[in-house]
Design goal:
Elements (H helix, E strand, L loop, with lengths): L1 H8 L5 E2 H4 L10 E9 L4 E9 L5 E11 L2 E11 L10 E4 L2 E2 L1
Antiparallel strand pairs: 1-7, 2-3, 3-4, 4-5, 5-6, 6-7
Amino acid sequence: SERVSSAIDAGARLDPWPSQLRDDARPKDLEVGDADETAFDEDRGMTTCVEETANGATLLAVQSWVNEGGAWKLSAHETIPYAPNSQAGAVLKCDNRGCV
């Protein structure tokens, strides 16, 4: 995506999906809540949720999905820190190449 490419161009490190999907790569004891989904049409949709990490940090997560032959596949994933009166210290942006 253009957002991931812009981050890479600005010096961000790309972590490919195989490294992102390892069991030890995900935050331990991640809790997901307040999930919602929207289908824009038969082929595109979006989900949102709040993720809470074991240390109490909360993240707002947004995922974009595409329907390929009847199977919904993740096409993009982004998170930002989410808490009252806070500013984002880091943003996660992902596309088909991986995450920055």
